[in-house]
Amino acid sequence: MRRRLPWLVWAPTILLVLLGTVGLTVTTWSGPADLAWAIAFGLLGLASASTGAVVASRIPHNAVGWILLALGAGVGWLFAPEAYAELSRVREAGPLPGAQWAAWVGSWAGVPVIFGLTTFLFLLFPTGRLPSRRWRWAGWFVAVCITLATVAVALAPDEIDTGYDNPVTPAGEGAELVRWLLDITDLLALPVLVTAAAALVVRLRRSRGVERQQLKWFTYAALIAGVGLGGGSAIPAGSAADAAFLAGLLAVAGLPVAAGLAILRYRLYDIDVVINRTLVYGALTVTLGTAYLGSVLLLQLVLRPVTQGSGLAVAVSTLAVAGLFRPVRSRIQAGVDRRFFRRRYDAARTLAAFGVRLRHELDLQALAADLRNVVHDTMQPTHVSLWLRTDDRNDSRTTHQ
């Protein structure tokens, strides 16, 4: 029954996410940006629920699967009441019963769902337990802060975002106490996030083998999300900022998928290749984009008297950047390998040096010793044996190291 329970929760969760995101988008439509938000949060809910159901059904003792499943259900619980409240304000639908309470639920549900569950995901990934017993204080600290923040937002005396009055807000001194609690919890948000990030960093530094690869998958997705959301906030408003922010939202939606793949150990060791390609092509895009813009501006300034506004500068810059693609990529690849993948870089240099010596070495014994050294340096085995076949089929030699 415990293995079937995640799927019993998954089915209504998927329906709730779809109804909530689609309904809220239709009732509050103001432009294409709303569609991007709906897609991003819809993917987050669907990916979290589906990944959580798979992990919880296969590894029920790991809390990460249940957190992901709760995150997916929480996204549906967050958007479905808001969509219902917005639908009640549509003239054709008319006032709907309980719309004010639905708007109230949607106003505070995001704190425990988006903020709380994501924080605990950072604290408990990948084992489902805290890094050590010494981190119990961190778990209680996060739980208390999230509870206080949820209560403060739920009792906030201000008007709910959807235009409804808060039905449970206190009056008089109670309202002042709630405002004070809101200010305190706003200040505690950063320490909570720092605590969660510190737990992930501690795990990564202490981890070895499989757990280290699991943390690489999760940290990679988290960094992509952070860079996208941070870039969207830092870049001046425009298409570039919108694209960066959308990429960050999509990366957030990919976070539960990365967590599920890591826990289930599916293609676990491919993360090194993914990270390598991301570093290389990210740096390559920035380098070539900067070179292209710089060359266009420079050539337009130099050739303006000759070209008189024609597209010659753009054409020349495009051809120049196309010619730079391969050599620049090779340089960046070598730099990334040398800085972040040193073992692979040293192994490639060792094999290249051995290939040069191989063309000039004639002594078989010296070649055999050199080959054993290369295998030992690049693959680092505990034992090396080299079998040499001579002209006589009944005669062979084996050398050891």
UniProtKB/TrEMBL annotation:
This is Uncharacterized protein. The keyword Ribosomal protein does not apply. The lineage of its organism: Bacteria, Bacillati, Actinomycetota, Actinomycetes, Propionibacteriales. The keyword Iron does not apply. Keywords: Membrane, Transmembrane, Transmembrane helix. It comes from Kribbella caucasensis. The chain crosses the membrane at residues 7-29, 35-56, 63-81, 101-125, 137-156, 187-205, 217-237, 243-266, 278-303, 309-328. It comes from the Bacteria.
